[in-house]
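Handout, section B. The chain below has 304 residues.
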Amino acid sequence: MAYTEASAEASTAAHRIDGVALASQIKVDLKRRVETLKRRGVIPGLGTLLVGADPGSMKYVAGKHRDSLEVGIASIREELPADASFDDIAAAVRRLNENPVCTGYIVQLPLPKGIDEFAILEMVDPAKDADGLHPYNLGQLVLHAQSAPASPQPCTPRGIIELLSQSGIDLEGKEVCVVGRGITVGRSIGLLLSRKDVNATVTLCHTGTRDVAAHTRAADVVIAATGSAYFLKPEDIKEGAVLVDVGVSRVVDPETGKGRIQGDVDPACYEKASAYTPNPGGVGPMTRAMLLTNVVEIAERENS
């Protein structure tokens, strides 16, 4: 069901934007494209560099490789112990840079304390930057104000825009408020949203913003990426706003002692919104789908 302003006015129920369903459609298309590449003798490969045994990171990396196998992308793993030195990690990055089987790869963050993450990330070959967050590739977004450059794009921002577009939400001329200035979303998504082919007006709020709620209440679209559970409340949005929930918080239920995932958007906001992304099940699956898309596109560009 595509969102339209007319349908929003006709119904009081907000449209739930299903990231799982759209990601599944994208993977079907990627599988077809991978099969085309294979007929030309090209097998795309996704690499991961995992340092240590953080449960969340291990689960995330394992999911990436399951997704890869689902669409026919080869998996390349570099795994190091938590006490790996900077030189050990740098050597693993060089191996992935030089590995012809690896089309694109990610360095799983966080790295162990004491390791300069930015120095490691800058060693990644920009042409193999599957996350789209290398300084060179972010610079390409700055330079290309008209449309997308022929370089990897940040996965989560790209997934958000694709999710809204495929749901029929036109961002042309819309006021978009982004809450959170992290590199994964906040600092990069404005570059994509303000391109001429999207044409939104973007406000970025952060801990230095004096009245965040004043900005979110004025926005047509709110992208919440703070990592603070239920940060956005119904009184913080205007009637009919579109809500994109990016933040992830792990909260322990005091009654059961079990942990659960909560997003940045209080579910009480849904009654006031015209459309929203659930969390989980919204942006997360699209981020993973865009990672695979970057790898396939890199292979296509190299073998066009």
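Note. The CA atoms of residues 42 and 303 lie 8 Å apart. Compare this with the example in section A.
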